[in-house]
Amino acid sequence: MKVTALAAHTPEAVRAALVARGWDAQPAWFAATGVQPLVVLLEDITEAEREALVHWGAKAGADVLTGDGWALVGAAASRLAPLARPDRVPAGLARLGPDLGRLLAAQAEPPQAWEIAGQRLALDHPVIVGIINVTPDSFSDGGRFVTVDRAIAQAERLIADGCELLDVGGESTRPGAAPVALDDEIARVVPVIEQLARRRLGPISVDTRKAPVARAAIAAGAAVVNDVAGLAFDPELTPVVAEAGVGVILMHMRGTPDTMDSLATYGQVAAEVAAELGQAAARAEQGGVARERIVVDPGFGFAKRPEQNFRLLDELASVVALGYPVAVGPSRKRFLGHATGRPVEDRDRATAVACALAWERGARVFRVHDAAVAREALRVACATTSAVPTARG
Q1: Domain end: 108, 135, 161, which one?
Q2: Which domain holds residue 3?
């Protein structure tokens, strides 16, 4: 008898083993995800549900750790699946089914595309979003691209280096940043977006929290709204996004740029960020935004201390399990400088590493300043989860 350990951190090892032994690709993938080990945290459970879980775990061979109002359940996905089926769920655990079913579906069949205005972005490879800050005070490149000509030249470089989306922002959201007047923000972003659209450089995203800015940017040619406040800052932004049929990136942040650092208090950062993003996405859908147009972003650097950012990066699976495509924007952030000691202008290599780690943990959209370095790192990361590396990512 020959015994070989297979990698447990990804379904790929099991999938490859099954394909090598004659299985077809699709059944092999579903079987591999079925035996993938999962740990789920259940909160706000009753004493009766807690006892039912302990009893089920003993019979199913699952590990169950419990306390007052909570439980941690660890088992292969295939063992957890009956808990999500109304016809097979044990007595007393029916309330668990819908949420667990969504989690298991997100793991087995992650989103394959992101619908934005006018087109569909495939997510079978890393989608790189190039940052164009037309602001005088952004933390990394403030003042470099404030003229239309400079912004267009930067857009051309980003496209050449592999970007599939250009993100134009006219208001700095660095910690402590002051708000920008509506007219000023519109005057910064609209001329750039108009010229990008005219030259067919894009598609284009507008980085804004404000409905009037988004409305003007969409009229100028933007296909995506990237809101660092997750549609919570301006109540009029949700209907603007819904009616225009654009894509939207919902980022996690607490407070505003001038207050967020004081709100970086978490018991368990990944679980809490995932819960708050899930609520933001649900509000967006209730407001008329189609699910297939939503991407969620954990908001690295926004209301998070360095150690919380790294914990969130490592535990990104909690956000991926929401079932929406996940975007990350670690580019040149302070937490990378905290780890490397590098100044802001010398953090592109660290950014690329963070993007590669995020890809392995399920992120598919990557917002960066230097696309060329990130593209190389992502191609290497992508090659570990694809049969053939893609030149697009």
Answers
A1: 108
A2: 1-35
